[in-house]
Amino acid sequence: MPRLWQCCLFIVTFGIVLVAGQKEPNICKSITVKTLQDFEKLKNCSIIAGHVQIAALDFTPETLANLKPLPIEEITEYLLVYRVNGLDTLERLFPKLLVIRGIKLLYDKYGLVILENRNLENIGLVELLRVFRGSIRIESNPLLCYAHTINWVSILGNRSKKYHYILNNNKPPNFCPLCYGPNPSDEERHRQCWSLGKFQRHPMANYTYPCLAECPNKKCNEKGKCCSDNCLTGCNDENCKVCIGITNGKKCIRNCMPPNALAFGRQCVPYCHKYNLLRFGSECVDKCPALYQSIRENDGEETCTLNCSGNFTIKSSEDLKGFEDCGILEGSLTIELTDIKKTSTNDLDIAFANLREIKGYLKIVRSPQLVSLHFFKNLHTIAGNYLAEDKYSFYVVNNHHLENLWNTNQKVSIPRGHVYFHLNPRLCYDKIEDLKPQLKEADLTVTDASRNSNGEQVYCESIISELNATIDAVNAHEARVLIEYLSPEALTPLIGYIFYYKEAPKRNITNYDNRHGCGHDNWFVDTAPSKQRRHILRNLRPYTQYAYFVKTLTISNYHYQVDASSDIQYFRTTPARPGPLQKIYYRSLSPNEIEIHWWPPRITNGAIEKYTIKYDEVVSNRSSDTFNEKSQTQPATHYEFCHCPTIDPELSGPMPVDDDYFQREQMVYDESMYNFIYVPSKAKKANKTVSLEEVQENFQRVHEEMFNTSIKEQDHGKNDFNISIPLPVCNVRNPSMAYKVENNCQEMENIEKDLELPSTIHTYTLKNLKPHTTYRIRMRACVEGLVNGCGPETTVWAETVSEHFVQILQSLNLTPVLNDKSLGVLQN
């Protein structure tokens, strides 16, 4: 009987434990704590789906004694602790905090910020394993210790070189106690700590068995099976407490599969309404986006359903929200872009990419930004069920820079209503006439569209049939464009050329992509008022692909006449030397070893091929003031290492309204002088009969003279358009200066004695060093495809610990702290 009772008790107890283990975590939303009472809102929260801000708060000894620790294990956005006085450690608040995900960052940059807390003695986040996204900034905490011992590289995960940690103006490490008390074990001597005796935890620290080479994170279980790289706290992603990606129960997955939806950016749930959220596609959201309305389903789930009904007016990019999901617009659309700078043509491309049909009318008015309507790339019907002014289904008025309507081969049907085109000075009338086949009910009349009010500022019949341009020389910062010779007839009305260029990671650019009539787009513009067929594009980024095309500038009509355009072509600039390394972190592992870790250069100027390391012993010991936590980087003296400010495309060339630039009065004067001087002489009676052969010879001679003159004019001053090209390597070792000048070559830099590491490695341990010795460590990054392609050195000084000192401390049951050092300042 007692045995039966014990069995029943075991079963009941096991069942209670199992049910308790399956209990879902309590999820709370973002909170800003400014009073002690605000902590009551967090007392039952295990996950914060948002951020936690603790700011401007004062603790007294009494309130600190009554403070209860919070059960929070995860924060999905960021944690900020700012000007909290009286609090000695964050362990009182967050003893169980495991991860900060950084889905949204403070100032789009930080995942963890601990700033200006005057009584904070240690951080105390004893369970913290990872800040997945965002930098860490711990600054101006005058009593804070132990922060310098933490391996912040491990907490950041080192997955991206974009985020870093910053420790500034805290208590100097030399005035802080050690991590451990008397009689420490050998293991404790080499561990980092949050406070006295509270050592730093590391992900999967228990899985250090010998692993196969193919194990992604060098972790495996006792049987040698590779650990999953999806689980942060264990080896198996089928039963994981904290997943790196998305959680489905206790299982780590990469994506939520229907009918589940992603909630809080971290977990899959079958129903959103159980978390007071709305279902939006495959996600759970707080509120429906623009143009969506909430509809309650039979199962109680509230879903966001698209509602593209009504008459919409677009005046800026803010009005475009939600349109990217509209395929059919049950209403009418008016585009009147009154705010020039706050409307991006790229936003129009995204918003109307899926729009196929407009049931009402389409109105384009007073929008000088528009160069074309190519952002309606999938539009096929303007139905005209509702008409502007009870007559027009397509209404285009007063658009100063509009040059084109639809994409090539795009046909938009207009089954009902008229079209209306006026005051579009750059839109040629023949492009309006192309709409005739799509008009079903009405013909095109002078009242609807006139040649006198459309295209009057451009020459709509091409004089120059073709313009060919190529890149014939390029370096890291410049490219020379070469235009094919024009005929003498085409050269007569030519003022110069307009060069358009932009960065193009992919080769899918068209002439009207993201074009902005007022220049507020990402096309740079160079205007060259010369018939010289060469032009240099300057201030380019190294190792970057660009798209470019060229247009002619003629005097045929008004200020800014374009008669011919080249096709869009592409080129890539050459690599340049990279900048210095962003940051170097080092740690003394033993009297004979120093571990270094580094971040790549902020400005790579190419594909990093390798890193070089030099280290040598410093003969005389450096004074203690040398070992400060500041960057020991050589200044970047060459322009290619500088971070140049972004050039505003709208200021990169003269605008069409700049009358002084084109010197209209001078042009009129020059043309009048030609007519005044070159007066045709009166015809004289022919006294001589000229043969047909002589006429042909004279014509050929005159034509050749004109052609030769035009070539000279187009090549005039060509020596002013030279650009520097990297020199080849000399064929001899240690060439003299005379040899290099005579053979136009450069000497190969000697890096044979340097230790070289591939670009995939960002940590290295220097071994076989001398105890209690200062070493100068110099590192460089090198790009591939460039002769002498290594950047400037970044130099740090590191010191190994003394063996004698270790022996003395060990005899006293003490040991020196082998601190982490962060030598290098994060460049903003």
TrEMBL record:
Residue span, Fibronectin type-III domain: 707-803
Membrane topology recorded in Swiss-Prot or TrEMBL: Single-pass type I membrane protein
Signal sequence bounds: 1-21
Organism: Stomoxys calcitrans
InterPro entries: FN3_dom (IPR003961), FN3_sf (IPR036116), Furin-like_Cys-rich_dom (IPR006211), Ig-like_fold (IPR013783), Rcpt_L-dom (IPR000494), Rcpt_L-dom_sf (IPR036941), RTP_Phos/Ushers (IPR050713)
Record protein name field: Fibronectin type-III domain-containing protein
SUPFAM superfamilies per record: Fibronectin type III, L domain-like
Phylogenetic placement of the source organism: Eukaryota, Metazoa, Ecdysozoa, Arthropoda, Hexapoda
Record's GO cellular component terms: membrane
Pfam family, one: Furin-like
